[in-house]
């Protein structure tokens, strides 16, 4: 009996020691002066410090596959489907040796696929791992809004649920339908291997003569559109896909199509604040990771015809400072007529980064745009600290994958 009592006491003593020791370890691990390990920001900073300037600049370019094949020469601007006729005929659907060679010198942070890059499930299953292996660890992007802009949804070789338009969803008045749309699209995009969907459209379609947005928008009423936008984003997120709201500061009140040339909104900032900014503010409050710029002029805001993509007043003063947005700003495709008719490829790439852009999407000529940004940093026109600001944001997004 004495032995049993002694054994019990010993076990109690050991338990007490272990409990106290556990508290000590827990206290030590949670002490602010003794952090357990590096934070996510620390890891991003560590990665940034190891990168060369070329690698950093490369992270700021998201391109179509054809940009890496310098043997391909195509005529732009491209249309709403992102495809010029000759690109569609080429149907680049695999990474070739030329692309690998160009990529060695020109690493890129992302690749966007268009309808002509996608044949069927088998081809896509071969293509995406080839893209993943490219230098720069590119993320896979697509425009899959639903409705008329759906690279996979409109491909008869894919058996996925399709949607008439975002306008039809908006007319239901139930944001749950927007969630269902985003989640359905996000689920099949995740299945096929994508990371980012350049959707939803956050524009408010207030101009009945608008030829480029139209039914791609949820509504002509910002109060209706805003919850649709955030629920669509949540649907994508719950499926494992990062969404992107577009086209800041709002393409819904224009008549012309920026794919082909200059377009403008004549609204003042106060007018935008009570309409277009309602949806963008909602997306920012929700926590959207990417906002895509519009190539529209806003002369009654900026006092000039400069495209919003190239305007520091729009991107820095309004979007960053006034609206408080701190995540990634990505351009609409820089190969569109609204840009190419006013700027050279080099001017456009440097100018949009100076304006505050983090990612240059779809330059008309990757080599020229990339070389121009490198030269601008080396000459001091753009500081490396400015490049680092953007790359930090991009690496934080990539850390999620």
How are the SSEs ordered, and which strands pair?
Layout: H1 2-30, H2 40-50, H3 53-59, E1 61-63, H4 85-90, H5 97-105, E2 110-113, H6 121-132, E3 139-142, E4 144-146, E5 149-150, H7 166-172, H8 175-192, E6 196-197, H9 222-238, E7 242-243, E8 245-248, H10 269-273, H11 276-286, E9 290-293, H12 299-302, H13 312-322, E10 328-330, H14 337-340, H15 345-355, E11 360-361, H16 366-379, H17 384-399
Parallel strand pairs: 1-2, 1-11, 2-3, 3-6, 6-7, 8-9, 9-10
Antiparallel strand pairs: 4-5
The number of strands is 11
Number of helices: 17
Terminus-to-terminus distance = 61 Å
Query: Which percent range fits the helix content?
Result: 40-55%
The best one-word shape is globular
The arrangement of helices and strands along the chain is HHHEHHEHEEEHHEHEEHHEHHEHHEHH
Stretches with pLDDT under 50, minimum 5 residues? 1-31
What is the averaged pLDDT score? 89
Strand content: 5-15%
Q: Largest sheet, described in full?
A: 6 strands, parallel
Radius of gyration, whole Å? 24 Å
Which structural class do you get from the secondary structure elements? alpha/beta
Strand neighbour order, sheet with most strands = 7-6-3-2-1-11
